TrEMBL record, chain A:
It is found in: Cell membrane. Signal peptide: none annotated. It comes from Pseudooceanicola pacificus. This is ABC transporter permease subunit. Its main location: membrane. The chain crosses the membrane at residues 12-31, 100-121, 133-156, 176-198, 244-270, 290-314. CDD domains: TM_PBP2 (cd06261). The keyword Cell membrane applies. PROSITE patterns: ABC_TM1 (PS50928). One of its GO terms (cellular component) is plasma membrane.
TrEMBL record, chain B:
InterPro entries: BP-dependent_transpt_permease (IPR050366), MetI-like (IPR000515), MetI-like_sf (IPR035906), OppC_N (IPR025966). The keyword DNA damage does not apply. It is a multi-pass membrane protein. Residues 86-276 form the ABC transmembrane type-1 domain. Keywords: Cell membrane, Membrane, Transmembrane, Transmembrane helix, Transport. This is ABC transporter permease subunit. It comes from Pseudooceanicola pacificus. The keyword Calcium does not apply. PROSITE patterns: ABC_TM1. Its main location: membrane. The chain crosses the membrane at residues 16-37, 88-113, 125-146, 152-169, 255-276. It is found in: Cell membrane. PANTHER family: ABC TRANSPORTER PERMEASE PROTEIN, OLIGOPEPTIDE TRANSPORT SYSTEM PERMEASE PROTEIN APPC. It comes from the Bacteria.
From TrEMBL, chain C:
This is ATP-binding cassette domain-containing protein. The lineage of its organism: Bacteria, Pseudomonadati, Pseudomonadota, Alphaproteobacteria, Rhodobacterales. NCBIfam families: oligo_HPY. Residues 4-254 form the ABC transporter domain. PROSITE patterns: ABC_TRANSPORTER_1 (PS00211), ABC_TRANSPORTER_2 (PS50893).
Length: 324, 289, 322
């Protein structure tokens, strides 16, 4: 088990190293590094001084190690726009995004898996067909458009829910959270639905396909032949067998939802990192872009690592492979 | 030809898919002939009058004709703008989809045929990229490359080629394991013959399926980027930008500027996806019978 | 009274391409503790017959006609609830591939307890005792410790023993064994065969042994039912059928057994192939491949009983007995 953890950890480190090279090349080598690190309105003297100070006159490989060295010390540079360390800027915005993403993905998973299992278990019923039609729509309709319609319907026409912002927050452990106040909760509903819809469609499809496949296996037939009731078969056999693909996708989706939050946060003016990155791209605040990319890569790798560990805990076959 | 005819006969049986195909063809035709149909060229800034801006559907403007779907904040006829917008969306979707298909399929088949180090290198990169959300990649690339049609297509290709590579690789490796490919490799046949005659034909069905889905995705992604203000220049509004421009006015009840371009976009994307679903079902041997 | 009495069973599949008559006239009886070999080529309907007996035919298939009486109770037309109560307790099934039947995510103990609790609450200690007892019976060493093992920790043969133990948990009257040794190594096949025969004898459980391999079945079964194109074409005591087959198809099967051939001579084959069940011509389904076929064979023969034996043929091998 320990060997397995170490092996996966080393893999994660390698992926992070590769990602840092890609981000470095993408932002420093393709673009003009001077423009990236120095504000456009700086004077010639400041430019020259900064170039020397940041070592931009040094060879590329030396610059890379400088870049990585700084990252490892938590130094991502300062934002041109806000003139504070990028890490503080992103750190301050991260809870809002995490709150939104977790709410959406959890809702989508619980709801999507239930609906998907139903649709897979009774594939020919009218309810199953309705569920699938909705999931096709959820897949096809661009999420920014769904956001607009949600605002138009529930905020503008009906006036039930606020159209944007985070609402009142409560500070717990030094971090402000919306979902703990009624006002905050009313603010999170629409963006969470918006962000969850695509994931919901995906989870429905996944759970349905998995259910259909599993219900045809000999494992289920054998259980039925032993007289085990359908509800026990669904709860103990199906749920256990389907958990493997669901957990994989849950992990992957958690990461990609972080990215999709960019769109939702822009539409609903949700003050998270997604909104920050769009604003930063618009004004070319490049240190923020670099930090964001590294952060997202880091979250991805961390999530994948966690998913691998969870696998090892729930699947006896992987556990056995890990022990060997 | 026989195969194609049988494929078509089966396709026709699904009424919904047939209707979707008709929609795709119709919308494409409208987009192609937009300059002949529309009452106004929305890119000609001199033809626009701010007097006509943000008027509701049915308004008769200074041009003397009825704006069936109203006008946008710059005073463009919305119907004309939508048809021109569809033109851009389809152009970009097709271009990005086809370039990504070519690059992706080449890499995937190369990896499958070459094996060894090349296979490992290509597929590692592809898998790494697949685990990364396409929208983020496109976002950053557009930000780095700047605005413009070519840059946008480049960003979309970079974000999507990996799907094609994975698909082609999957189909080609399962084919490569079959004995006849081994036999073909053992005979002094040129590699290009093995690839063109054997591997490529077997990759074609799944690639067609992925291509339809990815063209729809490109269109959606382009609209999303434009909506975020990272797509095409303001002088050539695509559907995403029209929607984005109308967004601030939605709060005051002038819904049509955002809603109608959105409806056009969704009809196109949903129709392409339904056609794609049907093609996939027809290619899937497990669902046959 | 027979434990199981099947009369004119018909199970059809209503596919888009047409009606597939997978089982189309199957009759046999099974006495207490008896082993019946159900033999036929693949596609002859023997597995579907097995599933029909348990009421587990998946859509688009369903039993359209016939009668299945288990311990005197009619199963055809019985509610799903009542059928479920009989499965596992009165009739159970063992499948071909032991790797696919057990759930890889649950321990053997958990799976056995689930099967036990399918018919009423069982305390944890009682469950362990009963499971252990059965694992020991099917020949699994150190059964108590193995209850905590997962399926992947067993070999194929051992997994099949576990599946058999699960099928035996409630001491059912009938076990349907669908080619339970086909996926195993030859040396292990014989062991499983003997285990099952001994268990049937010991517990009084009757066995229906489904197989395409006449040689395997005849070493085990007291009686045989030979299936062709969804029908039982010949039935009777194993020894009598092997010595003196009446249906030309049975005769062909026996003649093509390697053990029947002189070393060095070519094996006998039945000419032609199994017909498609979608477009079966009227009359005897074997007629197109039969050397005895005449004009009479364009109408369908029914299974006629002659003492302990029965066959469905107008021109049986060796002539019609007086």
């Amino acid at each position: 088990m320990l060997g397995f953890v170490i092996q996966r950890f080393l893999q994660a480190v390698v992926v992070m190293a590769v990602m840092s090279v890609i981000v470095f090349c993408g932002v420093y080598a393709i673009g003009n590094p001077v423009d990236i690190v120095i504000p456009p309105d700086a004077t010639q003297d400041i430019r020259a001084a900064t170039i020397a100070k940041l070592g931009l006159d040094k060879p590329l490989w030396e610059q890379y190690f400088l870049f990585v060295g700084n990252l490892l010390q938590g130094d991502f540079g300062r934002s041109f726009v806000y003139n504070i360390p990028v890490l503080d800027l992103i750190g301050g915005r991260l809870p809002a995004t995490l709150e939104l993403v977790l709410t959406s993905v959890l809702t989508a998973t619980v709801l999507g898996v239930s609906l998907g299992i139903y649709a897979g278990y009774r594939p020919d019923g009218w309810l199953a067909k309705t569920i699938m039609a909705v999931s096709v729509l959820g897949f096809s309709v661009p999420s920014f458009w769904v956001g607009l319609i949600l605002i138009l319907t529930f905020a503008v026409n009906l006036g039930w829910l606020p159209a944007g912002g985070r609402g009142a927050t409560v500070t717990v452990l030094g971090v402000p959270w919306s979902f703990l106040t009624l006002d905050g909760l009313s603010h999170i509903v629409l963006p969470a639905i918006n962000l969850a819809l695509f994931k919901l469609a995906m989870m429905i499809r996944l759970a349905r396909a998995g259910t259909r496949e599993i219900m045809l296996t000999d494992t289920i037939k054998f259980a039925r032949a032993a007289g085990i009731s359908e509800s026990v078969i669904l709860r103990r056999h199906l749920l256990k067998l389907i958990s493997i693909p669901i957990i994989t996708v849950f992990g992957l989706e958690l990461g990609s939802t972080l990215a999709f939050a960019v769109v939702t946060e822009t539409i609903f003016s949700w003050p998270g990192v997604g909104k920050l990155i769009i604003d930063s791209i618009a004004v070319l605040d490049r240190p923020v872009m670099v930090a964001y990319l590294i952060l997202v890569a880091f979250l991805f790798v961390t999530i994948n690592f966690t998913v691998d560990l969870v696998f090892a805990l729930i699947d006896p076959r992987v556990r056995a492979g890990a022990r060997a | 030809m026989m195969l194609l005819r049988r494929f078509w006969a089966e396709f026709r049986e699904n009424r919904i898919a047939l209707a979707a195909l008709v929609v795709v063809v119709l919308v494409s035709l409208l987009a192609v002939f937009a300059p002949l149909i529309t009452p106004q060229n929305p890119y000609d800034m001199t033809g626009l009058s701010l007097m006509d801006a943000r008027r509701p559907p049915g308004f008769v403007g200074s041009g003397g004709y009825t704006h069936l779907l109203g006008t946008d904040p710059q005073g463009r006829d919305l119907l004309s703008a939508i048809l021109y917008g569809l033109r851009i969306s389809i152009q970009i979707g097709l271009a990005a989809g086809l370039v990504a298909l070519t690059i992706g399929a080449t890499l995937g088949i190369l990896a499958a045929y070459a094996g060894g180090r090349i296979e490992m290198l290509i597929m590692r990169v592809v898998d790494l990229q697949l685990s990364f959300p396409a929208i983020l990649l496109a976002l950053v690339l557009v930000a780095l490359l700047g605005q413009g049609k070519a840059q946008l297509i480049g960003a979309l290709v970079a974000a999507q080629y990996a799907y094609f590579a994975r698909t082609a690789y999957g189909a080609a490796t399962s084919e490569r394991r079959k004995d006849y490919i081994e036999a073909a490799r053992a005979t002094p046949l040129a590699p290009s013959r093995v690839i063109l005659r054997h591997l490529l034909p077997n990759c074609t069905p799944p690639l067609i399926v992925v291509a339809t889905v990815q063209i729809a995705n490109s269109i959606s992604l382009e609209a999303t980027l434009s909506f975020l203000g990272l797509g095409l220049p303001v002088t050539e509004p695509s559907l995403g930008m029209l929607i984005s421009n109308g967004f601030p006015y939605m709060m005051s009840g002038r819904y049509w500027i955002s809603v109608y371009p959105g409806v056009a976009l969704i009809v196109l994307i949903v129709a392409i996806n339904i056609v794609g679903d049907q093609i996939r079902d027809q290619f899937n041997p497990r669902l046959r019978k | 009274m027979s434990v199981l009495d099947v009369r004119d069973l018909r199970t059809h599949f209503f596919t888009r391409a047409g009606v597939v008559k997978a089982v189309d006239g199957v009759s046999f009886t099974l006495e207490k503790g008896e082993i019946l070999g159900l033999v036929g080529e693949s596609g002859s309907g023997k597995t579907v017959t097995g599933f029909s007996l348990l009421g587990l035919v998946d859509p688009p298939g369903r039993i359209v006609e016939g009668s299945i009486r288990l311990n005197g109770k009619e199963l055809v037309g019985m509610s799903d609830r009542d059928l479920r109560k009989r499965r596992g307790r009165e009739i159970s099934m063992v499948f071909q591939d032991p790797i696919a039947t057990l759930n890889p995510m649950l321990t053997i103990g958990q799976q056995m307890r689930m099967a036990l609790e399918a018919h009423g609450r069982v305390g944890p200690r009682a469950a362990v005792t009963r499971s252990e007892e059965l694992l020991a019976k099917v020949g699994i060493p150190s059964p108590r410790a193995r209850l905590r093992s997962y399926p992947h920790e067993f070999s194929g043969g051992m997994r099949q023993r576990v599946a058999i133990a699960i099928a035996l948990l409630h001491s059912p009257s009938v076990i349907v064994a669908d080619e339970p040794t086909t996926a195993l190594d030859v040396s292990i096949q014989a062991q499983i065969l003997h285990t099952m025969r001994d268990l049937a004898r010991e517990t009084g459980t009757a066995l229906i042994w489904i197989s395409h391999d006449l040689a395997v079945v005849s070493s085990l079964a007291t009686r045989l039912a030979v299936m062709y194109a969804g029908r039982v074409v010949e039935e009777g005591p194993t020894a009598a059928i092997l010595r003196d087959p009446r249906h030309p198809y049975t005769a062909g099967l026996i003649a093509s057994l390697p053990a029947m051939a002189e070393p060095g001579t070519a094996l006998t084959q039945i000419p032609g192939t199994t017909p498609s069940l979608l477009s079966l011509p009227p009359g005897c389904p074997f007629a197109p491949r039969c050397t005895h076929a005449t004009e009479a064979c364009t109408s369908e023969p029914v299974l006629e009983r002659h003492g302990t034996r029965g066959w469905a043929c107008f021109h049986p091998v060796g002539g019609v007995p007086a």
